[in-house]
């Protein structure tokens, strides 16, 4: 399945074998780089690895939108594949393209040396460049609750959602799930089918979109389009966006909020007491996603209880065993607590000197195009652009990295790149508040990101194809000629017909 390989160009170390790492290895290999991928897990997949997969995990995007551009998911997969199916798909991708992945190999140190980089992972190896693909969901956060020792001594268990792999662990027990995002709601459903009681502790409610809006229209036809993206303000707007956020602003807001109104009716959120604050147009400032199948149904039939606007303040043991005290003073039995409370972006293998040039005082990543540190030559990041189209964005970022390594990106001067990074962070601060994940979240501006990457290297797909994406879900297969065109560009050949 090779598209043709250019002359060997250099040696690149890739850290992480998830979606971004595999895409990076495939594209760089096809362009002519000698690539090695390191991953500490026993299988490829990153968040889809069996070491991180929790019961109830399925994709947010339909299979067509989650697929790579030139490697469709199996026809027999359901519309929203399970975590196990996605991992098998990624393993098949790695095998089909003969990607050089070293599993069970943890990277402990990465640092510049001379005109290259050293990667320590069991042994010591030199590379010309390094691409960090360990992901923005690399390290789960678990609150440091007071009383943990007392709680565990009484037989209580506390774990992160990504550490909960076997639903039988919850069987017959009183379970608390902390959080209200995708992981929390996904894992709550299978837990509620076996637990003695299942309670969700939700500090904040967020809007959930139906997979089938009104029971009839697949959400992808509304949100996974350029029109869906254009409903949110971007600093470098498309022409249609100028109209939507100007003369048609009232209609734009109505379009968004109508989806919220449908969600309230469809899930009976009024009856359940689960209408989030604000309107659907506010979703850009918080975590959102599709409703987990069976979640609101479980709340309706009493198998799931949601304690909204509550937190756990203390763990303890009462006369009946392990328990948790909530912020309203309620004490609940809690034999198992599953924390789906977010993730840290962690790069512990980088030296302090590198991190000082990579992060600002607030811990934000200073990445041009969400990829290239301005002041750390030879170091790149992929997957640090969390989006609605993470597979497509990762693959196109890999194309941009390959082009830059080959000297085919017309980069601005360093001062201009720093200004661009600062402007992007200011926009994220203004638009997303504290929800931009240290500058790594581009939701919902996925297609803007793809356009800007490909326009910079003059490899964007034709305007006539992009025009079809305004009212039809984006099909990543429409971008399948981008990597072959890059190979031809770098080898002096003619570009393939695009689109």
Question: What report would you give on this structure?
Answer:
This protein is α/β, with parallel strands linked by helices. The chain has two domains: 11-138 and 345-491, FAD/NAD(P)-binding domain (3-Layer(bba) Sandwich); 140-342, FAD/NAD(P)-binding domain (3-Layer(bba) Sandwich), CATH 3.50.50.60. It has 17 helices and 24 strands. A five-stranded parallel beta sheet has the order 3-2-1-7-24, with helices on one face. A five-stranded parallel beta sheet has the order 9-20-10-11-16, covered by helices on one side. The longest helix is centred in the middle third of the chain and has 19 residues, at 249-267. The protein is globular. 44% of the residues are buried.
How are the secondary structure elements laid out?
Elements: E1 11-15, H1 19-31, E2 34-38, H2 63-66, H3 83-96, E3 101-102, E4 109-113, E5 116-121, E6 123-127, E7 129-132, E8 139-140, H4 148-153, E9 157-160, E10 174-178, H5 182-192, E11 197-202, E12 208-209, E13 212-213, E14 217-218, H6 220-223, H7 226-230, H8 239-244, H9 249-267, H10 269-272, E15 289-290, H11 295-301, E16 305-308, E17 312-318, E18 321-326, E19 331-333, E20 336-339, E21 343-344, H12 352-358, E22 367-368, E23 372-373, E24 379-381, H13 390-405, H14 414-432, H15 446-456, H16 463-468, H17 482-491
């Amino acid at each position: 399945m090779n598209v043709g390989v250019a002359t060997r160009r250099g040696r690149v170390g890739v850290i992480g074998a998830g979606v971004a790492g595999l895409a990076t290895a495939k594209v760089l290999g096809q362009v002519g780089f000698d690539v090695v991928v390191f991953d500490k897990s026993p299988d490829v997949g990153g968040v889809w690895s069996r070491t991180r997969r929790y019961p109830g995990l399925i994709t947010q995007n339909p299979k067509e939108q989650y697929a790579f551009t030139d490697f469709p998911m199996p026809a027999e997969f359901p519309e929203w594949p399970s975590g196990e199916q996605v991992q098998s798909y990624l393993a098949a991708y790695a095998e089909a393209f003969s990607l050089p992945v070293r599993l069970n190999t943890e990277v402990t140190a990465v640092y510049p040396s001379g005109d290259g980089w050293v990667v320590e992972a069991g042994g010591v190896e030199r590379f010309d460049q390094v691409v960090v693909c360990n992901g923005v969901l690399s390290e789960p956060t678990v609150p440091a609750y007071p009383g943990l020792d007392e709680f565990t001594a009484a037989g209580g268990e506390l774990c992160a959602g990504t550490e909960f792999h076997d639903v039988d662990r919850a069987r017959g027990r009183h379970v608390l799930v902390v959080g209200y995002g995708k992981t929390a709601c996904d894992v709550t459903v299978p837990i509620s089918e076996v637990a003695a009681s299942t309670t969700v502790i939700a500090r904040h409610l967020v809007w959930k979109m139906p997979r089938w809006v009104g029971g009839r229209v697949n959400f992808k036809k509304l949100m996974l389009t350029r029109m869906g993206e254009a409903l949110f303000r971007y600093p470098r707007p498309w022409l249609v966006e100028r109209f939507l956020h100007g003369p048609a602003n009232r209609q734009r807001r109505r379009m968004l909020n109508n989806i919220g109104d449908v969600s309230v009716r469809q899930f009976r959120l009024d009856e359940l007491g689960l209408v989030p604050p604000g309107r659907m147009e506010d979703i850009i400032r918080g975590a959102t996603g599709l409703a987990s199948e069976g979640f609101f149904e479980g709340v309706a039939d009493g198998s799931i209880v949601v304690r909204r606007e509550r937190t756990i303040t203390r763990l303890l043991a009462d006369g009946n065993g392990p328990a948790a005290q909530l912020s309203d003073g309620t004490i609940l039995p809690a034999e198992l607590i599953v924390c789906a409370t977010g993730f840290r972006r962690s790069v512990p293998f980088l030296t302090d000197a590198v991190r000082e040039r990579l992060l600002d005082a607030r811990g934000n990543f200073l990445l041009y195009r969400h990829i290239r540190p301005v002041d750390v030559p030879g170091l790149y990041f992929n997957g640090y652009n969390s989006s609605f189209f993470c597979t497509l964005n990762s693959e196109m970022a890999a194309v941009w990295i390959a082009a830059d390594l080959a000297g085919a990106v017309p980069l601005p001067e360093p001062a201009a790149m720093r200004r661009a990074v600062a402007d992007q962070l200011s926009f994220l601060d203004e638009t997303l508040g504290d929800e931009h994940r240290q500058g790594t979240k581009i939701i919902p501006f996925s297609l803007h990101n793809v356009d800007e990457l490909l326009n910079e290297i003059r490899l964007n797909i034709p305007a006539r194809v992009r025009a079809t994406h305004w009212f039809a879900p984006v099909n990543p297969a429409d971008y399948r000629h981008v990597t072959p065109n890059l190979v031809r560009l770098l080898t002096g050949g003619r570009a393939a017909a695009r689109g």
